[in-house]
Amino acid sequence: MDIGDYLSQLLVWVEHNIGIPIPDWIEQGLREIDFDLIYWLIRLFAPIIVTFLLPFVLLIFVYGSILFLHIYKRRHKLVDAYSKGFWDGARTTLGTFWDGHGKIWHGFEIVGLDKIPREGAALLVYYHGALPVDFYYIIAKSILHTGRRMHLVGDKFLFNVPGFKLLLQVFKVTPGSVEEISQLLCAGKLVAVAPGGVREALFSNSNYELIWGRRCGFAKSAIAAQVPIIPLFTQNLREAFRTVEYGQGYLRDLYERTRLPLVPIYGGFPVKLRTFVGDPILYDPNITPEDLAKKTQHAIEDLIKKHQRIPGNIFWALLDRLSPKLS
Question: What is the pTM of this model?
Answer without folding.
Answer: 0.77
